[in-house]
Amino acid sequence: MNAYEEKLRDRFWKKVKKIKNGCWEWVGATTYGYGRIGVCGKTVIAHRLSWVWANGKIPKGLCVLHKCDNRPCVNPKHLFLGTKKDNTRDCIRKGRFGDTGPTSTRLRTSDGFVKCCKCEKFLPKESFHKDNKVKSHSCHSCCKRCQSEYKRERRAEVKEKAKR
User: Fold this and answer.
1) Which range scores top for mean pLDDT: 37-51, 82-96, 98-112?
2) Cys-Cys link to 118, which of 1, 75, 146, 163 (CB 3.0-4.6 A)?
């Protein structure tokens, strides 16, 4: 292992939190709930990197899927290879197809926290409106603070337009 790979592994493990259910949750930067880390100037999906370190190269045309349905999880024991079609079938079979809102598995961690789509913070479920529907905003997974901020910005825009 060279010095760069040692530093990369060190950075990686500093961003992983092992939790009771066996998941190793990524607590660093995320995109759509999936962990991401910079490698040689490129962004790499954290669970894919974990798979490569544990099992070797990912064959072309295959994806790294989660058995645990926990997007931030990077535990290689919770990962398996499959096609995009396999991933869609798995999603449908587990009732996650079209999953949105604060109870969504794509935005929820295993310890009950939900990721706000706007500020990208993981917050307790109570931080979201019960029905979480804001008529002037199409997203259903913003926390109360972000929704209030959005409403304030929209009111200011309307007042500014009315002045013109």
Assistant:
1) 37-51
2) 146
